[in-house]
Amino acid sequence: MTYELAWNENVKDDLRRLSKNDAVRIIAAVKEHLAENPLAHGKPLKGMFKGLYRYRRGDYRVIFAVDHEARLVRILHIKHRKNAYR
To answer: Is residue 60 within 8 Å of residue 19, measured between CB atoms?
Structure first.
């Protein structure tokens, strides 16, 4: 059973800052992997980010939250790894 993907408004801005090739590659990977089984591909975060997950795609990190009851994955940010947790 697949999860529905919900993209926050600020993710569009994050994607515009990337090269077109990186953006297309990340979107395709998110649709393929996170929609199928987000917990198999995501890693839980700790500290002040507890309750969120990250998905690694090259040098970029996709920060997301999962609502299991609603079968929803909310994509919160897509950032370069050096800026992802600031």
So the answer is: no
